[in-house]
């Protein structure tokens, strides 16, 4: 198991919370909570050691050119593919947009 931490610029804090996915066969769980203004903090607990560069690239692509809300995101990964990771993050952000 490995724990990874990432930070990105963000806007105002999100107004709500969201939980999407579940830890299980090839899936992951994503918890999104309001964070400190100006900062998007992500913590990933993954079963895939040495995957930090993959996560960094995925987050950079996802947040490039946009200013997401300030969030604390906790990800519990069980070997999910990058496509599933992006899907779950987008689901969580969409859920927050409807609060």
TrEMBL record:
<dbReference type="GO" id="GO:0000036">
    <property type="term" value="F:acyl carrier activity"/>
</dbReference>
<protein>
    <recommendedName>
        <fullName>Malonate decarboxylase acyl carrier protein</fullName>
    </recommendedName>
</protein>
<dbReference type="GO" id="GO:0005737">
    <property type="term" value="C:cytoplasm"/>
</dbReference>
<keyword id="KW-0963">Cytoplasm</keyword>
<dbReference type="InterPro" id="IPR023439">
    <property type="entry name" value="Mal_deCO2ase/Cit_lyase_ACP"/>
</dbReference>
<dbReference type="Pfam" id="PF06857">
    <property type="entry name" value="ACP"/>
</dbReference>
<comment type="function">
    <text>Subunit of malonate decarboxylase, it is an acyl carrier protein to which acetyl and malonyl thioester residues are bound via a 2'-(5''-phosphoribosyl)-3'-dephospho-CoA prosthetic group and turn over during the catalytic mechanism.</text>
</comment>
<feature type="modified residue" description="O-(phosphoribosyl dephospho-coenzyme A)serine">
    <location>
        <position position="25"/>
    </location>
</feature>
<comment type="similarity">
    <text>Belongs to the MdcC family.</text>
</comment>
<dbReference type="InterPro" id="IPR009662">
    <property type="entry name" value="Malonate_deCO2ase_dsu"/>
</dbReference>
<keyword id="KW-0597">Phosphoprotein</keyword>
């Amino acid at each position: 198991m490995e724990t990874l931490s990432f930070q990105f610029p963000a806007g105002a804090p999100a107004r709500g919370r969201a939980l999407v996915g579940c830890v299980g066969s090839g899936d992951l769980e994503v918890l999104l909570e309001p964070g400190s203004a100006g900062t998007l903090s992500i913590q990933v607990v993954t079963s895939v050691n040495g995957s930090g560069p993959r996560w960094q690239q995925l987050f950079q692509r996802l947040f490039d050119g946009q200013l997401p809300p300030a969030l604390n995101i906790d990800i519990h990964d069980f070997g999910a593919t990058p496509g599933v990771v992006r899907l779950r993050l987008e689901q969580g952000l969409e859920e927050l947009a409807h609060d």
